[in-house]
Amino acid sequence: MTIKEVPYDMYLKEVNQKLTSRGIFLTTKENKLNTMIIGWGGITYFWGKPIFLVAVRKSRFTYNQIEKSGEFTVSIPLNEDLNKAIAFCGTKSGRDFDKFKECNLTPIPAQKIETPIIGECSLHYECKVVYKQDMIKENLDAGIDKRWYPDYHTFYFGEIVASYIKE
Questions:
Q1: Which of 121, 134, 137, 155 has its CA 20 to 30 A from that of 80?
Q2: Percent of the residues in the chain that have a pLDDT greater than 70, as a whole number
Q3: What is the CATH number of the domain that holds 111?
Q4: Burial class (CB in 10 A: 0-12, 13-18, 19+), 89
Q5: Which of 78, 79, 74, 80 lies closest to 37 in space, CA to CA?
Q6: What is the pLDDT of residues 132-151, one digit of tens each?
Q7: pTM of the entire structure?
Q8: What is the pLDDT of residue 86?
Q9: Nearest-CA neighbor of 41 among 76, 70, 10, 65?
Q10: For 63, phi and psi rounded to 5 degrees?
């Protein structure tokens, strides 16, 4: 396995395409390794830092994981067919399943943080939380609230401390 560092913004188009089509893997580790699928979020730039912004509902198992660890990885299949794993990880909870075992996903140590990446994916971002913000219902457009919110997200701004392709 060869790791090639890439600029954080080199694959913006691919990240956005994967987010809005099938979703991408958000991995956390605090006592237990877990991954979930996100379809909302993206890469941006705040405070002179590249940021991966992710939204996690408080009801999700991943929420407590990020709250405790303060970090996460994002793994994106570029050409790999991981549709079955994405479907499973997007509909099952880490409270009830070992998603890595169920989907034959391989945790590989990250370069700069404790949370591993997913070995079956090509593109990876390692992130340390530098800011978080709970949604405030009163600040949300009523139409969006009605359509999308049985419970609210916390937005995590993860400084991208490493971005690379696994070849």
A1: 155
A2: 99
A3: 2.30.110.10
A4: buried
A5: 74
A6: 999 998 999 999 999 988 88
A7: 0.94
A8: 94
A9: 76
A10: -55, -55
